[in-house]
Amino acid sequence: MTRLNALLICLCLALVCAGLVSYAVEEPPVEWIDPATGHRVIRLSREPGSASLYFHQNAYSPDGQKLIITTPSGLSTINLKTRAIEQIVEGRVGVIVTGRRTGNVYYSKLVGAESVIYATNLDTKATRRIAALIVFRSNMHGATHVYTVELKKQNRNLR
Q1: CA distances from 38 to 19, 29, 42, 97, 113 (A)
Q2: Sign of torsion, CA 38 43 49 52?
Q3: Nearest-angstrom CA–CA distance, 57 and 67
Q4: Under 8 Å between Cβ of 39 and 81
Q5: Domains of the chain listed by start with CATH number
Q6: How far apart, in whole angstroms, are the C-alpha atoms of residue 143 and residue 122?
Q7: Phi and psi at residue 63, in whole multiples of 5°?
């Protein structure tokens, strides 16, 4: 019984030490020079898990001064002149596109069983609900179908 206790204590200590070592990992540098190319590289995000949008989603504000990124805590913009980060939308979202003229970011957010489409203005943070989609499984071979259950207004100037 004492051998088993000693083994359990050693195992617990090893796990605690492993946890402490993982906290000692250094944060990546904010800037560095790439040794292969000589180019200066600047890290814009601060929150691990942040990501830029895919090329076809237009990740820039209409004036080109802000870059939209997704973060684990929501949507944010990075001011490309000052590098200031501002949260625009709180919570997990799926970005669709940023309007080239309107300055709105269009995204979907799960609300219960619905996937709600929103538009949020990058400057004012005013948010409006565009539509709600519901996802459910049909009885035919377990196929997933998406149905529009609400469409408030058709807007032809989304971009």
Answers
A1: 36, 16, 13, 34, 50
A2: negative
A3: 11
A4: no
A5: 31-151 (2.120.10.30)
A6: 37
A7: -85, -5
Instruction: Report the distance separating Cα 111 and Cα 117, nearest Å.
Output: 10
Q: Work out the average pLDDT over 94-122.
A: 89
Amino acid occupying residue 77: T
Looking at the predicted structure, is the pLDDT value of residue 8 above 70? no
- Alpha-carbon gap, residue 19 to 148, rounded angstroms: 47
Both tokens of 104, joined, read 């709105």
Cβ-based neighbour number of residue 52 at 10 Å? 14
Q: Which amino acid is at 67?
A: L
Q: What is the pLDDT of residues 63-89, one digit of tens each?
A: 999 999 999 999 999 999 999 999 999
CB 92 within 8 A of CB 116: no
Which whole number is the average pLDDT over 123-134? 90
| More confident call, 52 vs 150 | 52
Closest alpha carbon to 108 in 62, 157, 55, 146: 146
- Per DSSP, the three-state class of 10 is helix
Helices (H) and strands (E) in the chain, counts: 1, 11
